[in-house]
Amino acid sequence: MPTIDEVEQLPEYYRVTVNGEYLDQYGHMNVRWYSELWGWAAYAMMSELGFGKGYMEERNYGTWVLRQVVDYLAEVHEGDTLSMRARILGRKDKLLHNKYWMVNETKRKIAATSEVLVGHADLEARRLIAFPEDVANNLDAKIFESDTVGWDPDISGAIRL
């Protein structure tokens, strides 16, 4: 597991302070919010890489999460400020392997991680297709950038490209 200082080398794609609406009957953040927050982070990262709303509208392509492995590592409470950090671990013609870290900035802990397998989809044909060359080049540049942080991410082994 990387340290919090290592994870904070990664770009921040979303930040939020947890309010009472996020809590469950146990007084910590309800599990549904983890996916919601990672979803906003993923949308921001993918938009940065050219997969935003315009990509979908102009090309009729998008991305689908095919598999997700979540680790809940520390409780999140009302008033905690969270940042979502992300890294692309690798890709193939139609697939991406991403990892997201939810950092509890208030408590200086990694609260949770989400490792995902993402497929590139033709939204009309409803099937996976290869990334266009321009997008593949953006992804390769981001993977190279992510690999320069000097530490290896912990991976579950449940996702293979």
**Beta-strand percentage?**
25-35%
* Structural class category: alpha+beta
CATH class term = Alpha Beta
Question: How many domains make up the coordinates?
Answer: 1
Dominant shape: globular
Gross CATH architecture:
Roll
In round numbers, the mean pLDDT is 96
Largest sheet: 6 strands, antiparallel
Number of strands: 6
What order do the helices and strands follow? HEHHEEEEEH
Task: Specify the CATH homologous superfamily.
Answer: Hotdog Thioesterase
Helical content stands at: 25-40%
Number of helices: 4
Give start-end ranges of low-pLDDT stretches.
none
Rg estimate, integer Å: 16 Å
Tell me the quaternary state: single chain
N- to C-terminal distance: 21 Å
According to CATH, the fold-level topology is Thiol Ester Dehydrase, Chain A
Describe this structure in words.
This protein has 161 residues and is of the alpha+beta class. It has one domain: Hotdog Thioesterase (Thiol Ester Dehydrase, Chain A, Roll), CATH 3.10.129. Helices cover 27% and strands 34% of the residues. The longest helix is centred in the N-terminal third of the chain and has 18 residues. The radius of gyration is 16 Å and the shape is globular.
Tags for this entry?
alpha+beta, 34% strand, six-stranded antiparallel β-sheet, 4 helices, single chain
Summarize the structure.
27% of the residues lie in helices and 34% in strands. It is of the alpha+beta class and 161 residues long.
Strand and helix map with partners:
Elements: H1 4-7, E1 12-17, H2 31-48, H3 53-59, E2 61-72, E3 81-91, E4 95-104, E5 109-122, E6 127-128, H4 133-147
Antiparallel strand pairs: 1-3, 2-5, 3-4, 4-5, 5-6
